[in-house]
Design brief:
heterodimer; A: 394 residues; Peroxisomal Thiolase, Chain A, domain 1; six-stranded mixed beta sheet; 13 helices; 18% strand; B: 83 residues; mainly alpha; Non-ribosomal Peptide Synthetase Peptidyl Carrier Protein, Chain A; 58% helix
Chain lengths: 394, 83
């Protein structure tokens, strides 16, 4: 598994900062933020341009650089499996792809004319670009896919990866999500919907999922990637899996473009349980989507209570990282696996007093030491996308 | 463009930036495609950088004619003198 996030440039640094209760949210120190109603975000702790080589710095969009960094870490962490390239697939989802490239090159077009456009404009902006970069890096030839389901993209990538393995189309799938689109247009657009927190003076306190005083989510950037293996393939190479991706539930609301539907979320949870042959009682931990918007958190809390119950230990890691958009589901799946593996569940930052409507066992203050054996990670996206992943301890 | 640098030195810097080949190895006789592994899109990146650095626009049809580092230097020097 590998990540690059506002808490750290890799998984060990991110996980330890998360358990320590740190915040990845800061004031945007850039002139373009001055005119915006929202001037805070979760900026990558380690600039990906400083990690990749100079050619990749020019040829890859920031979101592609982040995915490449996370994929390299995941691949090394998995011991670089010796797999036939035609049995290795890649699924990297993204919310908006190379949006920064689109905007930057459009500025260049207007200012300098078409002859000064980068010849890599198109490969940098296309939404399958990050998946293709990872495929090129690893020599994966069993198919490369790029699900786009807004903030559920990263989770959907893992769901698609599991399908590919079950369908016999790959033995190993490198799956994850990426987004890096901090820009006045995206921040301005989300702010115009009223979706973002406006706590500009106290960035570390702005992202407060499930808290009574939450006022919206905080945009962030990053990537998370996992290596999925067919169980027999992992066993044959003598690897003990960190966790089993036991099932996935994917539903769509067909209800509203941006307002979530509790019924669609409940169906996704139920499907994730059925697919994994688990009962609600089996689930002892949930890493919630919980972005910190006033209505979104209540809808999810209601869905979890009705579909699973009030017994699981629930965390909301966007409280520390902010919302990584199309990477969120993949990064949170990684955290869910680590919680299963290590028996510790990160606390929800800034949860001072839970909203009165919420009836869940929320982790506050400090990490909860417990030993979950089956857990869910939920992800929802604009467009009515619901993706719930179920993980079990091997 | 730095006044202290020769055209060759500036071209070598551009090639290093785009292809990763160290500027010291970008000598006049080196062939762009065969020796420096500059593919068709990288060649366009070089044209973009040349346009920015020297204010010399290399038309696409001329770009294809450029075989070596010296060809690029000659083309820039011709355009700069004529300008």
């Amino acid at each position: 598994m590998g990540v690059t996030t506002p808490l750290g440039g890799d998984l060990p640094s991110t996980w330890s900062a998360l358990l320590a209760g740190e915040s990845g949210i800061s004031k945007l120190e850039t002139p373009w933020a001055d005119r915006l109603p929202v001037r805070i975000a979760g900026v990558l702790r380690k600039d990906p341009a400083d990690v990749v080589d100079r050619v990749q710095r020019r040829r890859l969009d920031r979101s592609q650089q982040a995915a490449l960094i996370a994929a390299r870490e995941a691949w090394a962490d998995a011991g670089a499996p010796d797999v036939d390239p035609v049995r290795l697939a890649v699924v990297v989802g993204t919310g908006v792809g190379g949006a920064l490239t689109t905007l930057e090159q459009n500025d260049r077009l207007e200012e300098a004319g078409p002859r000064l456009l980068s010849p890599f404009t198109i490969p940098r902006l296309m939404p399958n670009g990050a998946a293709a970069v990872v495929s090129l890096e690893l020599g994966a030839r069993a198919g490369t896919h790029a699900p786009t389901s807004a903030c559920a993209s990263g989770a959907e990538a893992l769901a698609v990866g599991a399908l590919l393995i079950r369908a016999g189309r790959a033995d190993v799938v490198v799956a994850g999500g990426t987004d890096a689109c901090l820009h006045p247009l995206s921040i301005g657009g989300f702010a115009r919907m009223g979706a973002l927190s406006t706590r500009n003076d106290t960035p570390e306190l702005a992202s407060r999922p499930f808290d009574r005083d939450r006022d919206g989510f905080v945009m962030a950037e990053g990537s998370g990637v996992v290596v999925l293996e067919r169980a027999e393939f992992a066993a044959a190479r003598g690897v003990r899996p960190r966790a089993l991706l036991a099932g996935a539930g994917v539903t769509s609301d067909a209800y509203d473009m941006t307002t979530p539907d509790v019924e669609g979320q409940i169906r996704a949870v139920a499907e994730a349980l059925r697919d994994a042959d688990l009962t609600p009682e089996d689930i002892t931990h949930v890493n919630a989507h919980a972005t910190g918007t006033p209505t979104g958190d209540l809808t999810e809390a209601d869905a979890l209570r009705r579909a699973v119950g009030t017994h699981p230990v629930v965390t909301a890691t966007k409280s520390a990282l902010g919302h990584l958009l199309g990477a969120a589901g993949a990064v949170e799946a990684v955290f869910t696996v680590l919680s299963l593996e290590h028996g510790v569940i990160p606390a929800i930052r800034n949860l001072v007093e839970a909203a009165p409507e919420i009836d869940l066992d929320l982790v506050t203050g400090r990490p909860r030491h417990t030993a979950p054996t089956a857990a869910l990670s939920t992800s929802f996206g604009f467009g009515g996308h619901n993706v719930v992943l179920s993980f079990t301890k091997p | 463009m730095s006044q202290n640098k020769t055209v060759l030195e500036s071209v070598a810097d551009i090639v290093e930036e785009i292809s990763g080949v160290p500027a010291g190895q970008v000598t006049p006789e080196k062939r762009l495609v065969e020796d420096l592994e500059i593919d068709s899109l990288a060649l366009i990146e070089i044209a973009v950088s040349v346009a920015e650095t020297f204010q010399v626009d290399l038309p696409d049809e001329e770009l294809k004619e450029l075989q070596t580092v010296q060809d690029v230097v000659d083309r820039i020097e011709t355009a700069t003198i004529n300008a």
